[in-house]
Amino acid sequence: MSGSIFNEIKERGFVAQASDETAVRKMLDGKPITFYIGYDSTASSLHAGSLVPIMAMVHLRRAGHRAIAVVGGGTTMVGDPSGKTEMRQLLDEATIRAHGKSIHAQLDRYLKFDGHGALAVDNADWLKPLNYIEFLRDIGRHFSVNRMLASEAYKIRLEKGLSFIEFNYQLLQAYDYLTLFRSHGCTLQMGGDDQWGNILAGVDLIRRVEGAAVEALTFPLLTTSGGAKMGKTAQGAVWLDAALFKPYEFYQYWVDCDDRDVGRFLRLYTLLPLDEIRRLEALRDGEINEAKRILAYEVTKLTHGEEEAENARKASTAAFGKNIINLEGAIGATARVIGDISVLPTTAIARLRLEAGISPAELFTEVGLTPSRGEAKRLIAQGGLSINDERVETLARMITIKDVGPDGLLLKAGKKKIHRVVAE
User: Fold this and answer.
1) Per-residue pLDDT tens for 377-406?
2) Rounded Cα gap, residues 306 and 415, in angstroms
3) What's the CA gap between 338 and 317, in Å, rounded?
4) How far apart are CA 409 and CA 388, in angstroms?
5) Contacts (Cβ under 8 Å, ≥6 apart) of 102
6) How, if at all, do strands 34-40 and 186-192 pair?
7) How much is the average pLDDT of 346-358?
8) DSSP string across 253-321
9) pTM of the predicted model as reported, rounded to 2 decimal places
10) Beta 346-349 vs 118-122: how paired, if at all?
11) Separation CA 415–CA 82 (nearest Å)
12) pLDDT digit string, tens, across residues 55-80
């Protein structure tokens, strides 16, 4: 990659704070360095909110720097209080190991761990064998309790109560940085802006123990223009694991983004050249949908592969461009099949239940298009639910086997949420 990689990531929106911006710029625009980001194993999958640090690693790896992804098998046993109003649920070691294995596989899709340009390590390897007394003497003596309590992460938690085990988290993260500096020559730690205090603690520890200058860089904590936390929906997290959040639904999440977010998301979540992004974000009115489709395709391709991205694109185009389900034999409607609809979110319902009839409020809630039957009834009153592209006009309307064509039954909530039902 030619030009300044620091300017590239800054223009894309990755830079919130830097320990010394001049030093970080010189570091990234110079000879290859080793940098790291940590991912605690608190769940079996990362989510869309994790994509900012992942994409930052991808950009720096492409620029020739060496990436270390730290899977936090050790720190997860303690729990990071940063950004949390309550103590994290402590997980058992077997669960943490299983989560770590899954996260490692997800990160590998983006970073291509080869042991040279990118590698993954587990901080349980050096944290679990620590002797507590030696750790306190050798590492703990370099930390000021007053300075730790002044950091934003601890100040927020002190209002509701901060456990002693959580208070140790900053020491462990700082020790991670020291360990990676010693073993891999790592000189830059990056993370979300809520990690600023923890990352600076590592910078300071290396300076005190090794007399060396290392740097820190944080990314902004994102919300959508509508105020929602990035990577969250009304139904829950937008997981990167296809088993938890289907590629079609993942694609549709990005297609459905606010017009105001398109340019920002293209910069952060794709590898498209900045000139192309400027062209796309300049589109207005209905043309902005082109930019949204490109955004959705590029993010889905990076996360789930080109084949899944193409399937999702075709299904989305079919679902929201024209009728896609063959309804021959269904009451009062016919349509032709367009594209492969098998990639749509699909639920199989027992034929006997459909023959008996199911209320729209029950079925829309069961398949996840509405969070509750009450919400489904409210949407029916507003004309917001449809069956096979026919609006549900009354609560008395029942869904039966007669509504199911050869390719299934199509449910829509509003203009953007779609689900296929098949009989079994």
Assistant:
1) 888 888 889 898 888 888 888 999 988 888
2) 26
3) 10
4) 6
5) 44, 45, 241
6) parallel
7) 89
8) HHHTS-GGGHHHHHHHH----HHHHHHHHT--GGGHHHHHHHHHHHHHHHHH-HHHHHHHHHHHHHHHH
9) 0.81
10) unpaired
11) 38
12) 999 999 999 999 999 999 999 999 87
Give the DSSP H or E segment for 186: strand 186-192
Which domains are present in the chain? 5-219 (3.40.50.620), 232-321 (1.10.240.10), 341-423 (3.10.290.10)
* Single-letter amino acid code for the residue at 93: E
DSSP character at residue 405: B
Helix, strand or coil, per DSSP, at residue 349: strand
Amino acid making up residue 37: I
In three-state form (DSSP H/G/I as H, E/B as E, the rest C), the secondary structure along 188-244 is: EEEEEHHHHHHHHHHHHHHHHHHCCCCEEEEECCCECCCCCECCEECCEECECCCCC
Alpha carbon distance 329, 412 (integer Å): 20
Residue 83's pLDDT is: 60
Question: What tokens were used for 149?
Answer: 């309590």
Task: Say how far apart CA 214 and CA 357 lie, in whole Å.
Answer: 66
Beta carbons of 12 and 59 less than 8 angstroms apart = yes
Residues 90 and 169 sit within 8 Å (Cβ to Cβ) = no
Q: State the Cα angle at 159 between 155 and 92, rounded to 5°.
A: 85
| Euclidean distance between CA atoms 224 and 6, whole angstroms | 25
For 38, counting Cβ atoms within 10 Å of its Cβ (0-12 exposed, 13-18 middle, 19+ buried), the class is buried
Helix intervals (H) in 322-357 = 351-356
Cα 155 to Cα 151: distance, rounded to the nearest angstrom: 6
